Structure formats: C-alpha cells, structure tokens
C-alpha cells in the first residue's frame, strides 16, 4: 500500500525547463511546490573538465536507460510496433534539468503563422491546399498574446541574438549580443546575401558575454569549447534549468525536489486531480503525494503516457479522428541537407558552440509563396558550427567506400575540409500519426510503454527536397568543390539520429472537442491539472522547440497562479 504524505499546494511531474520555470514563478508567490524527478540530481560541478565524447555523445550518459523504459515504434497501423532498444533518431533525457541540460541552446520563437496555421493557410490558398488526412489546427493563442512570455524566457536565459530581418515584431531586443562570426559563418552570410536572402546570427542560449538575469542569477560567457549537445556545460554558460530557474525556486524555501521519483499515476476523483502516486526507485517504495494542483511537465511521451495510464482525457482514435490524448504527434523533417567538400580550404570546425551559427527564414513558415508547391510550411536553413568532435567527424564525398584504405585516405583529406548547410523542416500532423499505449510491451514496473505510429508523408518528402536544393545553392555560392545533397526522402526510420524534437499528443486549442488543454495549458476535463511542454504543440515548426516551450511555461505559470486564486476554467 502506498505511503501517503501531507498535501502541498502544487506537485510537478518532471523538473526540466517547463517544471523548473513553473516552480520558480509559483514559489516566488509563496506557493509550496514539490518537484518529482525520476532521474538523479545534477550540478555544474559534475561536468568540470569532462570533455568525454565516448561517454556522453556515443554512450548517452545523460539519457534514460532504455532497458528499463523506452518507446515502441511502427511506421503504420498494419505492422507490429517494436521497442527502441538503442538510441538512434532521438534522445530521451533523464535527470534534474531534463533535456535542458544536454541541449544545444538554439532558441527560436515560433512564427505568427504557426499559431494560426489552419486559418492563415485557408485564407491565402483555400481549403484544398490542405491535403486529405492532414489535421492542422489553430493553437487557440496568437503570437502577439505569447510575445511577452517569449521575451521573459529570453531574458531569464540570457539569449544572445541579432534581429531577424524578416521576423515578427519584438517588444525588446535580445538581452545579450550575438555570438562571434566564424569564417564559414561569414561565407554563408555572403552567399545568402548574394542570393538576396536574409541571414542573421541564430539566437543562442550559449552566452556571448557575462550576464545577470532579472532574477539576479549571474553566469559566465561561452568559451566555444564545442561540447554542448549531449553534454552538460562546465562553465554554466549554456542556459539550463539547473543554473537559471531552479536556484531561484530553491532560494524561496518553498521548493522541494525529490529525485529518483518515478511518477506512475495521476490520482483523481471526479473531475479533480488529487495528487500523484510515484515509486522511489532507490527503495522501491510506493508513495502518494496529495496536492491542490497537479502540473505535468515531463517530456512529450511521458505526458501522453501518464494521462493514458491515469484514464484522464479522451484517448485519440485514429479511425474516427475523435478523442484528443495522443493526437497530432509530430516530429521534424531534419534531412533536407547538403554537404560541401573543399579541395584546398581548411576550417577550424573542431571549435564551436551548440548555438554558434547563422540562419535564414526565407523558406520557413509562409514567408514564401506556396501556391505552386506541393507542400505547406517549410523550414529554417542554417550553417552551424557546433564543434566537430573527432569520433563522429569523418565526412567523405558520396561514392567513397565506407571502410578500408580509401575511406581512411578520404577522411584525412577532408578532415576540417567540409561544411554542412542544413534545414530544419516543419512537421505537419496527420490523422494516422499518434501516440497510444502499446498492448504488448511494458516497462520495468509492468506499465505499458508509449507506442508511436508515424512515417514521412508526401508533404515531408516534397518539402525536404525543396529545402535540400536551397542548401545546395548556398554551398555552391560558398565555393564548395563538390556538393552532396539529399536526393530522395525515404520512409522514416528510427535507427539514425535526426532530431529530439518530438511534439504533440496533448495539444492546445480553443475547442475541447479537438484539443486537450486551453491556452494556459489547463486540461479542459480537469481544471486543477495543467500539462506543460512540447506535447501542447498542435504541429511542429521549422525551428527548435525550446523557446516556445519556455514561453508557454511562463504563460502556464500565470494561469496556475490565477487558478490558485480564483479557481475554475481559465479560457
């Protein structure tokens, strides 16, 4: 029988960016908050002088143990899903700070078009532009409503950036200047301007200079060591929850973090959540934590799975398109790339930072005319210099044998002699893309694993080739001697890393029939339960999601405070 603890004001399930932001905002207002994190505690000192590519980048030290908990995957409903037993397409983080510890730090704002995508697409192109089975919908909020929260997140994190020439309006400039420009970045910028495009240094959570944020948290500038993605930052220069918002919440005395606490059920009675049941993985004890307000702030799959396991909300039915929990799963089309090889030039690409790069949005969202194109939306295009570490950095031109003397010779010849220009394409939801509970496979506790049903569609294939051609054009103007580019986008396969940007499943909107949460991320079906994170995205944009997750988290915090004061539905 579970041991029952005294009730608190708020219990958070997951202490990554979303949970940590909400903890900071609520505890500053005097609420007593408990944060339950299934992984271990982390601090900056853990990463002092630990530039270990094998441990972190290849053996996934900061990721969850797939032998105990994973997902299952299938490309369509006609085949049996199988468990993901080794990391490939995406990485599932675990521990205090969540994926916010091992991210690159690229911090964009989704575009006005994203939040009203269905309305704006129909308005410009007519209903027939949306293909059969594509389930895009407006998010129930506008960019203008969310803009102050974007600004707040950027100032908390100290985002270093430069104005996007064709970006939406901002209420203030970035809090710190853009990162340094490297020679390849300057080559990209010159090529883009030659093609009459609009490049800008991408927004970075790697600090360009020492910074103190509005909460009084001081951090040091980035050293450009190149160990960001899959690594914790030894300098604290990369914004993560552990060095930004968690200390603020802890300082209030109102925040208790419990690590090694795996939440297995949200408890509820009638239409109210009453708390959570979790297992202390150090002892095996089952514990019940009652709370007035429950906030689900885990990764996408965890948010969906917990709601389904707890029988909260209406499970999505792909055959009828009804129900909402698991609906509109979307990924990212990150394969529209091109690589340029240089016979005589060398670049110091071993140096870098997770958010060091230059970007353009001329082919993102609806910034270009889609009337004669066989897809909607698009993607950002960028050159990033994130630090080419030695084990994984051995690009060779197409046609080169992938083993033996020829491969070794080409690897040495082109070491620091090739540049990649890539796109990050949006992912549109379809009726047959969703997440549910697997009927066969279970985790270490005996609970069903989340099951993904997903594949690339014509929408994705057409967009990827379009973007790859644009990337190749840029490399040609950057003087590359040989260019390889994506020629065809095959079926989605889960074995090769692409992006950890999974979204959807507990989507926001203005209508309870088609969405799970309102624009404060409050459950329509249970007003004291909030579900915060990229699970709220009704589709995925042509950007990294974290900036938008941060903004939505600040708005959700406002909603929770309003609910705590007055109760009831907020929208």
Describe the model:
The chain has 571 residues and is an alpha/beta fold. It has a single domain, classed as FAD/NAD(P)-binding domain (3-Layer(bba) Sandwich). It contains 11 helices and 22 strands. The protein has helices spanning 17-28, 53-58, 112-115, 117-125, 143-157, 183-194, 246-251, 300-309, 405-413, 458-477, 546-566, and strands at residues 3-4, 8-13, 33-36, 72-74, 82-83, 200-201, 211-212, 218-219, 255-258, 261-269, 272-280, 286-296, 327-330, 338-341, 352-360, 379-386, 418-425, 434-442, 448-453, 482-485, 503-505, 529-531. Helix 1 (17-28) runs parallel beside helix 11, helix 5 crosses helix 11 and helix 6 packs across helix 10 (458-477). It is globular and about 70 Å long. 53% of the residues are buried.
List key phrases describing it.
571 residues; alpha/beta; FAD/NAD(P)-binding domain; 8-stranded mixed β-sheet; 6-stranded antiparallel β-sheet; 11 helices
CATH superfamily: FAD/NAD(P)-binding domain
How many helices?
11
How many domains? The number is: 1
Poorly predicted runs: none
Distance between the termini: 38 Å
Helix content: 10-25%
